[in-house]
Amino acid sequence: MRIFIAGHRGMVGSALCRRLSSEANVELILRDRKELDLTDDLSVSSFFREERPDGVIFAAAKVGGIHANNTYPVQFLADNVRMAVNAIQAAYENEVKRFLFLGSTCIYPRMAPQPIQESALLTSELEQTNEAYALAKITGLKLCQYYRRQYGVTYHSAMPTNLYGPGDNYHPENSHVLPALIRRFHEAKESGLDSVTIWGTGSPRREFLHVDDLADAVVHLMQLENPPNWVNVGTGEDISILDLAHLVAKTVGYEGRIETNPAMPDGTPRKLTSVDVLNRTGWHYKINLAGGIESTYQSYLDHIAQDELRAV
Prior knowledge:
This protein is an alpha/beta fold. The chain has a domain of 215 residues: NAD(P)-binding Rossmann-like Domain (Rossmann fold, 3-Layer(aba) Sandwich). Helices cover 42% and strands 16% of the residues. The longest helix has 21 residues.
């Protein structure tokens, strides 16, 4: 089976490449941004016409944390919608029968009942700080659902919770919370700082999934004959941001004070997914948070030593 992984250089795409390299009879089709601009519909159409993959795993996205989402909503909405629409349309036009679109649990309403079930989609308002990105991902999800309903192709979606692991983005302003904490506590330890201040009150609760677990779940979903239209991928367990900060500090070896800054936004109060649908298909996560953070920090140190740290 020839599978095109869109976004193979990112954290998720790299994990998918690692996972699929162990699968017999799988040939990976890979293109970086210089080789294929997914926002260019003509380039995407030409690529699919020439390569004609059997399946697609769409892990490409413009991503970032609260600051980035608040600052660049036009790019987060427009670029992500263009990429999704171009790829899904070109896949169908070139008879790709299997397409898995990767979204995010940020698609769900800000005040969705916890744990969040797949049926919560579009039942109330989104979180304003990442609304643009969420709308783009909802568009991709619904387009896959509509192609499946209208044309009978197996186009479906997976909604992972907060991800972390090797290859994450450690930009000081635009990264997600866990890599941001790893970098902040590491630099504080190296500089001998007495304290580290985290954004917000520290009270919001988040769920975290190691990216290698996500890759394993995606392969599992691609092998199902009749997968759900969209399904949450997570652990079903969460932790407060303050407790997460203490866990990261302990892993890094930082012994100073941890302070909060309530003047900065918290984002969604809680975002815990229900993983009952996925669990019923026979998949469960394997990597616990403490062990995952430890291996991720080691990966961070390795990338620093090799001058390969991603911080864009």
